[in-house]
Amino acid sequence: MFISISVQLTLLFVGSAFAGMNKTGSLCTVTPSGSKDDSPSIMDAFKQCGQNGQIEIEEGDYTIAKVMDVLNLRNCDISIKGKLTWNDDINYWLRNSIGVTYAQRSTAFRLGGDTFSIRGHGKALFFGNGQKWYDQNRNNSNQAGRPISLTLWKANNVFIDGITWRQPQFWQDTRGSCPAPHTFVAHSQNVTMTNLDMNATSNSQWSTVNTDGTDTWNSKDITIKNWVVTCGDDCISIKGNSSNIYVKNVTCHESGAACIGSLGNPSTTPDYVENVLFEDFTAIHSSNAAWIKTYPGQGHVRNITFRNFRFTDVNQPIYVSPCIYSYSNCDGSRLKISDVTWENITGTSRYNVAAGIYCSKSVPCTGFKFKNIEIKPKNGGSAKVLCSNMNSDSGLACTGTCPAGWKQQLSGNA
Ligand SMILES: *[C@@H]1O[C@H](CO)[C@@H](O)[C@H](O)[C@H]1NC(C)=O
Ligand SMILES: *[C@@H]1O[C@H](CO)[C@@H](O)[C@H](O)[C@H]1NC(C)=O
Ligand SMILES: *[C@@H]1O[C@H](CO)[C@@H](O)[C@H](O)[C@H]1NC(C)=O
Ligand SMILES: *[C@@H]1O[C@H](CO)[C@@H](O)[C@H](O)[C@H]1NC(C)=O
Ligand SMILES: *[C@@H]1O[C@H](CO)[C@@H](O)[C@H](O)[C@H]1NC(C)=O
Ligand SMILES: *[C@@H]1O[C@H](CO)[C@@H](O)[C@H](O)[C@H]1NC(C)=O
Ligand SMILES: *[C@@H]1O[C@H](CO)[C@@H](O)[C@H](O)[C@H]1NC(C)=O
Ligand SMILES: *[C@@H]1O[C@H](CO)[C@@H](O)[C@H](O)[C@H]1NC(C)=O
């Protein structure tokens, strides 16, 4: 009798603490609480069903007021049909976001472990309340503590599909001197992310700043397919120590499209990127289309292919720099770039430059190949192709040399 009462009291207590979570067998079902913080219910589901289980986050509006950090998922299928809104308590997030080592960035939501899936069914919506961040940031570059929306950290054998992001907190991108993406894939292997839709668009005079679509770092065997990204920064950005990366059918608006880099910072740490294929890209009103940017560092970039690109109004479609952002010590870079193919690259440039390629004199570029490149200035005339310190048998019809320190974005005709 006494025992039975105490069990009932315990159940009551658990029920009121996590009103939105029910467990049946290995299935945890989460429903919205109304207006309270739903992150405790979701964390409870991860705790009780994150190993050999399933988690269903049902339709409805959820408020997330605390960081969610789950690194021990194992054989878990997660289904999300609701809208998750990260609240706009900037002071909380600045103090509590989880550090992710890279470039002093941090994250609001981190998942790791072995063999898990997240299916959003085209219904899951991650809303970051980013406008308040863009306004508070007032066009400055990345702020420490401004969190990345979702980080995969030490995550192996992962499938993610059908999620939409709007107004993420972070740099939804990797532009500027230090990027902050919607999604960040770090120390991970065998990750497939399909049918994702991201849009970080500021509606005030302050722009989004560093809201990349995704960045990979210290990761391999990554597939990205069928994405639409609108953001102020890079769209898909492959960072240090990434290999075997396949990216297909991505449309990028207002962003840096397909990018390797930034790499090579700090210059004392080598960065290696190899075996990357980008294909079937569309870029609209963007800064660059198919490009590689490094600091004057060490390491290598090799075996990269950009193919089947269509674009309109891109500031400088093809771009290679060994001294990004500082535009100095360009010939001091020892980060070798080789075996890169650009094939079937067609569209309009904003100004009269189709390509600006500068390679470090210390490690000239080798094995560059260009096939079927057709880039015309949007206002007519012919486009310049500027090249320095690369192999002469590339197939690219260079029209002149590219000065050292040539900028990533132009502000008018050259
Ligand atoms: C949990 O299950 C009970 C009994 O089936 C049900 O009454 C309750 O509404 C459920 N709560 C949630 C949050 O799904
Ligand atoms: C890669 O991950 C997926 C999704 O979890 C899994 O189905 C597949 O077996 C994994 N591949 C390998 C080679 O482990
Ligand atoms: C992104 O969002 C902005 C603001 O809501 C909207 O104007 C724009 O059309 C959206 N972009 C795409 C590609 O849907
Ligand atoms: C913020 O930066 C954007 C993009 O560079 C620019 O268009 C806008 O004018 C800037 N806003 C202010 C208030 O300086
Ligand atoms: C490319 O991706 C878009 C956006 O996700 C999708 O609508 C379209 O069906 C995809 N195309 C192919 C050929 O898979
Ligand atoms: C990349 O890998 C190399 C070799 O394993 C390592 O020395 C370096 O620290 C790594 N770089 C980063 C940024 O983790
Ligand atoms: C180059 O990368 C591609 C993937 O884009 C891969 O299939 C191929 O095996 C790589 N080549 C070498 C020599 O590693
Ligand atoms: C070139 O790329 C476009 C756009 O992705 C594609 O439709 C076309 O089939 C490609 N052409 C060849 C020869 O592969």
Description:
Pfam families: Glyco_hydro_28 (PF00295). Residues 1-19 form the signal peptide. Belongs to the glycosyl hydrolase 28 family. It is found in: Secreted. With 414 residues, this protein is mainly β. The chain has one domain (23-388): Single-stranded right-handed beta-helix, Pectin lyase-like (Pectate Lyase C-like, 3 Solenoid), CATH 2.160.20.10. Helices cover 10% and strands 51% of the residues. The protein is built from 4 helices and 27 strands. It has helices at 2-17, 39-49, 90-96, 130-137, and strands spanning 21-24, 27-30, 51-57, 61-64, 68-80, 83-86, 98-99, 106-107, 109-127, 147-148, 150-166, 181-186, 189-194, 197-199, 212-217, 219-230, 236-238, 242-253, 258-263, 271-286, 290-294, 298-314, 318-321, 334-349, 353-358, 366-377, 384-388. The chain has a 24-stranded mixed sheet that branches. The protein has a 3-stranded mixed sheet with strand order 7-8-10. One 2-acetamido-2-deoxy-beta-D-glucopyranose binds at residues 139, 205-207. One 2-acetamido-2-deoxy-beta-D-glucopyranose binds next to strand 11.
SSE diagram, text form:
Layout: H1 2-17, E1 21-24, E2 27-30, H2 39-49, E3 51-57, E4 61-64, E5 68-80, E6 83-86, H3 90-96, E7 98-99, E8 106-107, E9 109-127, H4 130-137, E10 147-148, E11 150-166, E12 181-186, E13 189-194, E14 197-199, E15 212-217, E16 219-230, E17 236-238, E18 242-253, E19 258-263, E20 271-286, E21 290-294, E22 298-314, E23 318-321, E24 334-349, E25 353-358, E26 366-377, E27 384-388
Parallel strand pairs: 2-3, 3-5, 4-6, 5-9, 6-9, 8-10, 9-11, 11-12, 11-13, 11-14, 12-15, 13-16, 14-16, 15-17, 16-18, 17-19, 18-20, 19-21, 20-22, 21-23, 22-24, 23-25, 24-26, 25-27
Antiparallel strand pairs: 1-2, 7-8
The structure holds 2-acetamido-2-deoxy-beta-D-glucopyranose (8 copies).
Residues 218, 240-241, 269-272 line the site of one 2-acetamido-2-deoxy-beta-D-glucopyranose.
Function: Specific in hydrolyzing the terminal glycosidic bond of polygalacturonic acid and oligogalacturonates.
Pfam family, one: Glyco_hydro_28
Protein name: galacturonan 1,4-alpha-galacturonidase
